């Protein structure tokens, strides 16, 4: 079995500040170590369930955060960015049997973490067909459009609940919870144990994980800055609804993600 694992950092245990997410910051080293350990735990769970090929995407900011030396020999790790619409699941195609998300976080508009955001910190929310959209949901749709089920997600508690609303059969591993500007975190050992178990169970029961792709997808972005909304509105097909809000309706997930690459 061939498994794709997308790893972010804001939803990993122990992180409560933006500075910890920035390559080169003194706080980043420990955060990147935890990001690596949690991604490795997902790899181990997938291997426990019979996976034979693992592709892991370093999907945070620089795309160059994790320690390659800690991964199992079956893993191939993707560093940096392809600059393609599939973004955090770059290279995912129909040859994969399952998609997993590690270290993911609540979207902008959901108070699951002091680090809640969607793709960047320049918007108040992103919606698809009127529903708050997270980075998980955007990329789970990419998987669904290519016939790959999203079987497991780890991150903050509200993000895990959000994922279950769209993929009821998905296995979740909440490793932290937002508390005002603070986060309440599991220890690395317990977080990794739960991620490994969720990854194993998710892959074993992947046939339960179905995400329906709507016939049309209307993406709505509420920008923090009116001038960014104005700029985005010049993308072909985009509409400026009000000074801060832009919408775009796509017929396919690939079309939506291409628009997202340029306007969000």
Automatic annotation (TrEMBL):
<feature type="active site" description="Nucleophile">
    <location>
        <position position="117"/>
    </location>
</feature>
<dbReference type="Pfam" id="PF04951">
    <property type="entry name" value="Peptidase_M55"/>
</dbReference>
<dbReference type="GO" id="GO:0004177">
    <property type="term" value="F:aminopeptidase activity"/>
</dbReference>
<feature type="binding site">
    <location>
        <position position="105"/>
    </location>
    <ligand>
        <name>Zn(2+) 2</name>
    </ligand>
</feature>
<keyword id="KW-0031">Aminopeptidase</keyword>
<keyword id="KW-0479">Metal-binding</keyword>
<keyword id="KW-0378">Hydrolase</keyword>
<protein>
    <submittedName>
        <fullName>D-stereospecific aminopeptidase</fullName>
    </submittedName>
</protein>
<dbReference type="InterPro" id="IPR027476">
    <property type="entry name" value="DppA_N"/>
</dbReference>
<keyword id="KW-0862">Zinc</keyword>
<feature type="binding site">
    <location>
        <position position="8"/>
    </location>
    <ligand>
        <name>Zn(2+) 1</name>
    </ligand>
</feature>
<feature type="binding site">
    <location>
        <position position="60"/>
    </location>
    <ligand>
        <name>Zn(2+) 2</name>
    </ligand>
</feature>
<feature type="binding site">
    <location>
        <position position="10"/>
    </location>
    <ligand>
        <name>Zn(2+) 1</name>
    </ligand>
</feature>
<keyword id="KW-0645">Protease</keyword>
<dbReference type="InterPro" id="IPR036177">
    <property type="entry name" value="Peptidase_M55_sf"/>
</dbReference>
<dbReference type="GO" id="GO:0046872">
    <property type="term" value="F:metal ion binding"/>
</dbReference>
<feature type="binding site">
    <location>
        <position position="135"/>
    </location>
    <ligand>
        <name>Zn(2+) 2</name>
    </ligand>
</feature>
<dbReference type="InterPro" id="IPR007035">
    <property type="entry name" value="Peptidase_M55"/>
</dbReference>
<feature type="binding site">
    <location>
        <position position="8"/>
    </location>
    <ligand>
        <name>Zn(2+) 2</name>
    </ligand>
</feature>
